[in-house]
Amino acid sequence: MSFFLMLGSSLARFLMRHTAEGIAPWVVALAVALAVLYLGEPAAGSRPSTRRQVWLGAVLAVWVALVLLAPSFAWCALPLFYLSLRTLRPPAAAVLISLLTVVVVVAQLRLAGRLEFDLLLAPPAVSAFAVAVFLQMDRQARRQRELIADLVRTQRELAATERRAGILAERQRLSMEIHDTLAQGLSSQQMLLQAADRTWEVDPAAAHGHVRAATAIAEHNLTEARRFVQDLAPADLAGGAGLEQALRALARRETTDGLDVRCHVDGTPGRPLPDRVQSALVRIAQGALANVREHSGATTAVLTLTHLDDRVVLDIADDGRGFDPAAPEAVAATGTRGHGLPAIRTRARQLGGTLTVESAPGEGTVLSVSVPLPGLSGPAA
Description:
alpha+beta
């Protein structure tokens, strides 16, 4: 816009002061041609293009012809300085701007008709100032583009990190759900079917009972699979059943010929437990009983649910072989390299609770999960 304002004012000044000269039609034609050429500016790319350089040469050639005919058009040089800096590399642009400055000085001296030192010094000073301003603005624009590029790159990296974290969290959830439900049920089915195979010829009625128990477990597992795929509560909590009923149902289902599972409840809750707490405690009990059945060799396991003022505590005790929790080989023997205890510990941590493991070789094992109740305030909390 500034170029057209300067071009228009230069043309108006020429027409007002030099209309008697015979070059007026040529000046008007060249001014129109220069305006048309300037409007046809090619798109600027990241690198100088031959097409844009040819276009710049045409614009400057028409402008020089105008200045030779009418020196007042020398004031259009300032926008052409910036145009040269945007089109050419800095060294080439500096040389071209120097030449344009010489043309401006010559035009001003012709227009003045005498030698004046201010006309010799002013155009170079204006040129140097214009170049300095352009370079400073270009440097700031480049720095801003770099900052924006860094910000975009950081956002992409953050999004990728969040995506990976979400994938890992979902994998962990699925692994815990599968361990506490499907794997546990499949292990029970295997034991029941093996027992049925051993007693099939000796006691067909008992064998049929084992098969029916395995079928019930398979049906329950199917329900559990559908529920955890949809991220719903455990099947034992379906239909409005509370935590106590769910734990008692779990104890009955896990009781087999080789393992007797009992359930005790101490105290009464002062208010209903949150659904996520109930679901997590049922899953913890399922995972703990799976560990008891697979690793401890126990004959009896006891689930104890204790309601306190500010927390709820779930204990799972067994009379199995036990282990030394501080010994790496004993920890590995209990399957903690898999998904048992790590899954229980993760579920307890997600609820803001803690997991305590008490065991010794030959003395059984007690897992205690303590979960604080949310929303409490005062001394109890």
